[in-house]
Amino acid sequence: MTYVLQLGLIGICIALLPLSYVWVKADDNKFRKLVWLTTFLTLDLVMFGGFTRLTDSGLGCPDWPGCYGTSSPFIAHAAITAAYQAMPTGPVSIGKAWIEMIHRYFAMAIGVLIIAQVLIAWTARFKRRPLHVSPWWPTGILMLIVVQGAFGAWTVTMKLQPVIVTTHLLLGLALLGSLGWLAARQTPIPAIDPAAARWLPAALIGLLLLVVQIALGGWVSTNYAVLACTDFPLCNGAWIPPMNFEHGFHLWRALGMTGDGDVISQDALVAIHWTHRTFAIVVVLYTLWLAAKLRRFESLRKPANGIMIVIVVQFLTGLSNILLQWPLPIAVAHNGGAAILLLLLVMVNFRISSSRPGHVVGPSATAPRDAVPASLPRQAP
């Protein structure tokens, strides 16, 4: 298992770069800087995960956590070459192996950064320094990334089974959303009109609808159903084309197969695509309505504007995927747009939550930087 230790060292070395940046940066709140940087890098990792999936690189190294029992495609070069020569159109090649391993290296680096957050948070708790968050929050995020890593392993060992890959995607976005919430708790927020509190249920519904739509989009991608409908607004020349929902949404099955072990039909793929496309209309209309309503509040105007812009971009990139036959840059941008929209809705929900009377969730924009929260006792002079 020497190569596992080598993989760990690679992850630590990569994580040292952002950790060094946080350490030398002129900011009196290193923890806040670290959380925001980890959130940004996790967004990048989610997008690179989409790139890995879209380039069919998920099995570029068909074992886990290394590549043919080594820590690097350099070392596994002979095994990769042999696999490629045996099946040139198969999932293994030098390029795909590097894409897959780079994704794993950066995932390990994110794990190291979250471990650093856990250590800082618990140290602050023991030394009674305020962080405006319980140390159990970063600890929970660390547990989430462990589960995410397990699904990453099963993605490979279970040969890209759609339900495993989709769950892996959703867990990655849950990790991103949790980090975004933690970052928001560490950031001073402007005064918010208490009247915004009544929009919390609507904002939560918007977030839930988006999560369902992302799950449907992940199901489209993992089943390679993006081009099941090649026209718009019709689907293969019909508003309601022939579809097979039973096979399309049977969860536990191998890639490209039905639950009975037969090759999945085109009608099943059309059902997957059509459902994602149709539900997108609901999400777009509801989210645009919600953003328009939230723009009336000064403290919510910027994220609401961001939501409206990203929704439009998502519609255009989704349409381009169909009409331009799924070009890779646009497909990656569509994945990234969903992640950014999730972050924006998380931020909106956080700000609305903070507007509830007597509900303190983070530092105030006007509070002194060294202020001790009411939940922590002040030490005697």
From TrEMBL:
This is Cytochrome c oxidase assembly protein subunit 15. Residues 358-381 are annotated as: Disordered. GO terms for molecular function: heme A synthase activity. It comes from the Bacteria. It holds the Pfam family COX15-CtaA. It is found in: Membrane. It is a multi-pass membrane protein. InterPro entries: COX15/CtaA_fam (IPR003780), COX15/CtaA_HemeA_synthase (IPR050450). Its main location: membrane. PANTHER family: HEME A SYNTHASE. Pathway: Porphyrin-containing compound metabolism. Keywords: Cell membrane, Disulfide bond, Heme biosynthesis, Iron, Membrane, Metal-binding, Oxidoreductase, Transmembrane, Transmembrane helix. It comes from Caballeronia udeis. The chain crosses the membrane at residues 6-24, 36-54, 105-124, 136-157, 163-184, 196-216, 274-292, 304-324, 330-350. Its EC number is 1.17.99.9. The keyword Nucleotide-binding does not apply.
